[in-house]
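Translate sequence into structure tokens.
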Amino acid sequence: HLVESGGGLVHAGGSLRLSCAASGLSFEHYYMGWFRQAPGKEREEVSCIDSNYGRTYYADSVKGRFTISRDNAKNTLYLQMNSLKPEDTAVYYCKVGTKWGQGTQVTVSS
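Result follows.
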């Protein structure tokens, strides 16, 4: 299963790093990504990373501010979030293969 951590409350302009620790699967062979869902909005993909070549994708809204990475040895996926904005406030979910994490709340105050 997937266990997320690293969410919290931060002022605008601040940073957080989310972690997603995976167990029970061959971490390096699956799709890995981060999604978020704000109140009243649909869940959206924020970023993902290719399992074979490490190629990355970012939503336009986070490009240049967020960085996705993975540590296959630790079976952990990360999302470094810098220059956070109030509109980044949401529950963030990791996804590895078809499995979802439980979500972690990120709140950015203005």
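Note: Residues 68 and 79 are 5 Å apart (CA to CA).
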